[in-house]
C-alpha cells in the first residue's frame, strides 16, 4: 500500500505547490508570522488547498523532522479535471453514475465510500478542494485499494459540479432526510449523479435547491440518521437494483 508522502518546512511546501505536486492538505502552526509565512498563506489561498491551523503539538505528532511550523501531505493518488473526466465517462457509457461528496470530512468514511463506489460501478467521485477529507494512508486502507481504481476529481465548489453535470445531461439526486420522497420513488435508470453530505451538516442548502431531485432513506427506528458511508451504500445499491432487475 502506498502511503501519503509528507513534506515539511515553509520553503519546501511552497516549492511543492509551485511545481504542481498533488498537495492534499497543509497543516500550519497557529500564530506563525513572517514574510515567508505570508507568501505560503497567499499561495495556499490562490490554489485553494485544504488547510488547517493547528497547535505545534499536532505538527510534532505528524513528523519527527524539523517542520518550521508547516507540514503538507502529498496525495498518493492523482486527481482528475472534472470536465475531462465527465466527458470521458459520458462518451464511454450510456448510463453513467457519478458520486459527489459535499465536504465529507472523515477519512475512514471516505475510504468506505470509495470501496462501495467501486463495488457498485460508480464511474467517478467528485469532491471539493477545501473542507473535504484528504486521501491518506487510512483512506487507502479503508477503501481496500479501491482509491486507485475509481477516478476522483477535485473542484472548487460542489455546486459548480452539479451545474456542469446537469448541463451534460446528468440528473442530480441529493440524499437528505428533509426530503418527502424516498429513494424508492426515484428512477435511477438515467445518467445519474448522487450527492452525499457531510457527517454533521448534511448537504449544503444551495446544493439541495439546485438538485433535480432529493430523496431520503426510510428510517423505522428511533435513531434519526445513518452513518454517511452506510447511507451512501444503500443509495448506490438501489441504483444497482434498478439497473439490473430487467
Account of the 3D structure:
The chain is built from nine helices and ten strands. By secondary structure, it is an alpha/beta fold. It folds into two domains: about 5-75, 2-Layer Sandwich (60s Ribosomal Protein L30, Chain: A); about 80-245, SPOUT methyltransferase, trefoil knot domain (Alpha/beta knot, 3-Layer(aba) Sandwich). A six-stranded parallel sheet has the order 7-6-5-9-8-10, sandwiched between helices. Strands 1-4-2-3 form a four-stranded mixed sheet. Helix 2 (about 35-45) links the parallel strand 2 and strand 3. Helix 1 runs parallel beside helix 2. It is elongated. The model has no long low-confidence stretch (mean pLDDT about 90).
Low-confidence stretches: none
Instruction: Name the beta content range.
Output: 15-25%
Largest sheet: 6 strands, parallel
What would you say the CATH architecture of the largest domain is?
A: 3-Layer(aba) Sandwich
The rounded distance between the terminal residues' Cα atoms is 39 Å
Topology pattern, helix = H, strand = E:
EHEHEHEHEHEHEHEEHEH
From the alpha-carbon coordinates, what is the Rg to the nearest angstrom? 19 Å
For the residues shown, what is the average pLDDT? 91
Judged by helices, strands and strand pairing, the structural class is alpha/beta
Amino acid at each position: 500500500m502506498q502511503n501519503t508522502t509528507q513534506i515539511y518546512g515553509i520553503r519546501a511546501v511552497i516549492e511543492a505547490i509551485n511545481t504542481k505536486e498533488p498537495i492534499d492538505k497543509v497543516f500550519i502552526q497557529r500564530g506563525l508570522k513572517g514574510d515567508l509565512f505570508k507568501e505560503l498563506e497567499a499561495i495556499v489561498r490562490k490554489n485553494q488547498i485544504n488547510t488547517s491551523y493547528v497547535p505545534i503539538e499536532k505538527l510534532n505528532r505528524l513528523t519527527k523532522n524539523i517542520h518550521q511550523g508547516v507540514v503538507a501531505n502529498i496525495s498518493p493518488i492523482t486527481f482528475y479535471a472534472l470536465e475531462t473526466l465527465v466527458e470521458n465517462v459520458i462518451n464511454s457509457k450510456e448510463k453513467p453514475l457519478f458520486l459527489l461528496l459535499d465536504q465529507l470530512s472523515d477519512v475512514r468514511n471516505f475510504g468506505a465510500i470509495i470501496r462501495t463506489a467501486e463495488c457498485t460501478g460508480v464511474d467517478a467521485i467528485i469532491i471539493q478542494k477545501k473542507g473535504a477529507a484528504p486521501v491518506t494512508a487510512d483512506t487507502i486502507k479503508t477503501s481496500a485499494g479501491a482509491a486507485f481504481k475509481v477516478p476522483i476529481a477535485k473542484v472548487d465548489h460542489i455546486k459548480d459540479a452539479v451545474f456542469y453535470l446537469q448541463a451534460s445531461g446528468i440528473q442530480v439526486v441529493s440524499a437528505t432526510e428533509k426530503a418527502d420522497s424516498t429513494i424508492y420513488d426515484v428512477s435511477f435508470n438515467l445518467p445519474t449523479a448522487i450527492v452525499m453530505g457531510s457527517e454533521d451538516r448534511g448537504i449544503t442548502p444551495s446544493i439541495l435547491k439546485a438538485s433535480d431531485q432529493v430523496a431520503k432513506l426510510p428510517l423505522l427506528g428511533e435513531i434519526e440518521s445513518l452513518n454517511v458511508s452506510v447511507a451512501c451504500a444503500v443509495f448506490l445499491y438501489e441504483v444497482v437494483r434498478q439497473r439490473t432487475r430487467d
